[in-house]
Amino acid sequence: MVAVRPADVEATLTRIDPLRPVLLLFGPDSGLVRERARAYLARAAEGSSDPFGLVRLDGDEIAGDPGRLVDEAGTVALFGGRRVISLRVGSRNVVPAVEALLAAPPGDAIVVIEAGDLKRGQGLRALCEASPRALAITCYADTDRDLTRLIDTMVTEAGLSIDRDARAELMGLLGGDRLASRGEIAKLLLYAAGEPRITAEHVRAIVGDASSLALDEIADSAFAGQPTEMASAFAKASGEGMRADIILGSVCRTGQALHLLRLAADAGSIERAIESARPAIHFRRKPLIEKALRSWSAARLEAALLALDDALLAARRNAALGPAIAERALLQVAGQARRG
């Protein structure tokens, strides 16, 4: 097995292994997948003067022409040096293309594959984990330790310092997506520039909930019947490159959690259900969660979840129309919530 252990990930990504020219990055944190892919691609391209040395391929196109990946990897760089290929997996199956590549790996090329959250023992993940010519790295959401390191590093690099309570406040708003977390920290640093220290007031004034690229905001606004706010959060997530099926999947999970809370509220009260929720609901989300619970019955939530599941399937089958499919489904949810 060539699945890289979490403790070895950083060391593995700091060096290019020519014996394992294929790197698969996947997992629930799409921002971390993107960040690690960019860094590894830049490292692989170091020393090359070929402006065409980095090739970006779309997974859905490769799925329709499996031989193209092998051809691209085997093409000799125009000005010499290493051939570097970035492949982003879409909704279609790229296993045949990657399987052919691993069967006849190129002599001097590096292929970095970005994928979503893949199941163990299946498809692309199983193929790369079993191959001696590939590395497979899972990108999990940041832990508290990771977030502390990220915050302290960026704050130090900016020449600032941060109060302990401000760090704690900030950590509660980050964590679902590495790129989104970086963006929120950078926004905070710009806002606090010139101040002696970053305080909790600075955090509350400028940082929104960056977890999973504002996915909570999309779901909460939809179920609370706020279409304008939902559309704004959806546009932000889409602009950051979040796939429509990922957004809908997160909304479905929020809907399932709301359904459980609604059942608990039916057996007691909404306030008690919210306070007893595990994991605890962030205080900024509580007003929207309460509003959603007052707008939906358990039966109506079940019907909404079925509709969202249908939209999720449609978005996966047609990636090009995915954003339109997702936004339409979410606006329908928001409309149903407003009607109570």
TrEMBL record:
<dbReference type="GO" id="GO:0003887">
    <property type="term" value="F:DNA-directed DNA polymerase activity"/>
</dbReference>
<protein>
    <recommendedName>
        <fullName>DNA-directed DNA polymerase</fullName>
        <ecNumber>2.7.7.7</ecNumber>
    </recommendedName>
</protein>
<dbReference type="GO" id="GO:0006261">
    <property type="term" value="P:DNA-templated DNA replication"/>
</dbReference>
<dbReference type="InterPro" id="IPR008921">
    <property type="entry name" value="DNA_pol3_clamp-load_cplx_C"/>
</dbReference>
<dbReference type="GO" id="GO:0009360">
    <property type="term" value="C:DNA polymerase III complex"/>
</dbReference>
<keyword id="KW-0808">Transferase</keyword>
<keyword id="KW-0235">DNA replication</keyword>
<comment type="similarity">
    <text>Belongs to the DNA polymerase HolA subunit family.</text>
</comment>
<dbReference type="InterPro" id="IPR005790">
    <property type="entry name" value="DNA_polIII_delta"/>
</dbReference>
<keyword id="KW-0548">Nucleotidyltransferase</keyword>
<dbReference type="GO" id="GO:0003677">
    <property type="term" value="F:DNA binding"/>
</dbReference>
<keyword id="KW-0239">DNA-directed DNA polymerase</keyword>
<dbReference type="InterPro" id="IPR027417">
    <property type="entry name" value="P-loop_NTPase"/>
</dbReference>
